[in-house]
């Protein structure tokens, strides 16, 4: 069993980079309402492939264990993050209520995947296993001996969060409140993994945070 070190980190960066790049090219050259859907799927594939490769070679001890307290982490922290996001948006960011993108008053083709199914079902496990599983654990493993656990943990959290924010900025909106709340979500999920040694608390935070946005966006779309 090979530990997740430089090879795993490089595979993750290559997969993410290719997914974002090819997805951007698809949106640029393909004049179709389905282009954003395909681009989103390509980004997910870029995350899934290196993650599956890493888990096939080895599995960090305890990372996939589940405890009942992980559910409390998920619901409690997701609620706090959504309240912070709402306060930031109401203070001059994206607006008090978000909304789905519409074309001539109608939702675009594939919205159910990019705006509904994706954020609620696909994104939380895919993104957490990639950013807070593969990347966070890999950076921590590489730096733990030369720098010590505390420094390695802090750097691993910053690296995984930075890449998380960058990926969302390149593939979505880049308003100030969106960047801040994405960073807070990334740091919160990274801290959960570092403190508990388990991934499911982070997945549940993400899984509870995203549906609250979908619900608000649905209301915002109806009332706009």
Describe this structure in words.
It is a single chain. This protein is an all-alpha fold. Helix content is 78%, strand content 0%. It is built from seven helices and no strands. Helix 3 (68-90) runs parallel beside helix 7 (200-223). It is globular and about 50 Å long. The model has no long low-confidence stretch (mean pLDDT 85).
Features:
224 residues; mainly alpha; globular
**H/E series, N to C?**
HHHHHHH
Question: How does the major sheet shape up?
Answer: none
* Radius of gyration based on Cα positions: 18 Å
Tell me the number of strands: 0
How much helicity do the residues have? over 70%
Counting helices, strands and paired strands, the structural category is: mainly alpha
**Percentage beta strand:** under 5%
Overall geometry comes to: globular
Brief overview, please?
With 224 residues, the protein is an all-alpha fold. It is built from 7 helices and no strands.
List the helices and strands and how they pair.
Blueprint: H1 6-29, H2 35-57, H3 68-90, H4 111-147, H5 149-171, H6 176-196, H7 200-223
């Amino acid at each position: 069993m090979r530990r997740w070190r430089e090879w795993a980190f490089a595979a993750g960066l290559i997969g993410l980079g290719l997914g974002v790049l090819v997805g951007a090219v698809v949106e640029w050259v393909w004049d179709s309402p389905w282009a954003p859907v395909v681009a989103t799927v390509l980004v997910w594939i870029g995350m899934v492939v290196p993650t599956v490769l890493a888990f096939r070679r080895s599995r960090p001890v305890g990372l996939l264990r589940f405890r009942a307290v992980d559910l409390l982490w998920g619901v409690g922290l997701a609620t706090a993050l959504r309240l912070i996001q709402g306060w930031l948006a109401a203070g001059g960011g994206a607006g008090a209520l978000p909304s789905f993108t519409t074309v001539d008053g109608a939702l675009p083709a594939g919205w159910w995947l990019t705006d509904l199914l994706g954020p609620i079902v696909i994104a939380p496990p895919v993104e957490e296993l990639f950013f807070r599983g593969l990347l966070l654990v890999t950076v921590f493993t590489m730096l733990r001996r030369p720098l010590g656990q505390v420094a390695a943990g802090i750097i691993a959290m910053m690296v995984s969060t930075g890449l998380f924010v960058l990926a969302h900025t390149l593939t979505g909106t880049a308003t100030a409140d969106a960047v801040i709340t994405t960073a807070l979500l990334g740091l919160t999920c990274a801290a959960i993994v570092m403190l508990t040694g388990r991934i499911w608390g982070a997945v549940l935070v993400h899984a509870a945070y995203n549906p609250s946005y979908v619900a608000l966006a649905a209301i915002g779309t109806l009332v706009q």
